TrEMBL record:
It is an enzyme of class 2 (transferase). GO terms for biological process: nicotianamine biosynthetic process. PANTHER family: NICOTIANAMINE SYNTHASE 3 (PTHR32266:SF12). Pfam families: NAS. GO terms for molecular function: nicotianamine synthase activity. Belongs to the nicotianamine synthase (NAS)-like family. This is Nicotianamine synthase. Coiled coil: none annotated. Gene3D superfamilies: Vaccinia Virus protein VP39. It catalyses: 3 S-adenosyl-L-methionine = nicotianamine + 3 S-methyl-5'-thioadenosine + 3 H(+). The keyword Zinc does not apply. It comes from Cinchona calisaya.
Amino acid sequence: MVCQKDALVQKVCEFYEKISSLESLKPSKDVDMLFTQLVFTCMPPNPIDVTKLCKRVQEIRSNLIRLCGEAEGLLESHYSTILGSFDDNPLDHLEIFPYFNNYLKLSLLEFNILSQYTNKVPSKIAFLGSGPLPLTSIVLATYHLTSTSFHNYDIDPSANLMATRLVSSDPDLSKRMFFHTKDVMNVTSCELKDYDVVFLAALVGMDQEEKLRVIDHLAKNMAPGAILMLRSVHGARAFLYPIIDPCDLRGFEVLSVFHPTDEVINSVVIARKLPISVPIQSLDQGLGGAHHVMLPCKCAEIQAFNPLNKLNMIEELAAEDHLI
């Protein structure tokens, strides 16, 4: 009898073979169908630990995450172009994007989590990896943080051009939404220190090493006490997006981790930049490099999330402080 884990892995590998053989990942009937089926396969809660799978499946997972990222970028570009063609305010038509409701739920979740750990409304927020359709910034700015300015960073100038076109007709957001064409690793402390909150998109850093380099860069350059919001995944959803291990957030105090179990795919990690200077060991250094403090990790039990109820969130289990 095939165990649940083996059946799931086999199904995901079959999807990978089909997706990787596509001539294009641009939105089409076949592309949309395959990715929708893949998401529904990975969505149900599953205790699988993808980091323990064999090397071949690990490689397939890594490749699949990159394919998902590419397809997601193409999907956002496609709909950003359509929205930008409307003569009136494009933001009045966001519901045509097929996953808009998911962004509404995810943004509400992130806002509720952020509200638990901040005493004031942030004046400036940075979103790193905003893309051509910056829905998180738009939803947060429109519904939740109506006086906050949002600075969106993306390495692709065409993505920023499309995103700018979307908000330029809106009398409010056009004054509070800004776009910067820049590699995340080139965003300096002079810029980062001005932000109360920094959001890191799920697809900035497509593997663990890339993600750690970005996190270390933020730890060195963000203002002490500033909040970092990250998106991770749990269980089988890790075939779709990279995982962030809370204990990899060197230079930050991890406050909480939230794992939704509904159609909101991404988990949310919230951390605070340490108010003191902590040496961060470079990924390029060997074991003889500087020691660093590993801050208390707060793990989370999986619990269904009702985005309309602030109190229905995940129970936190605080781990004890320890040093390495």
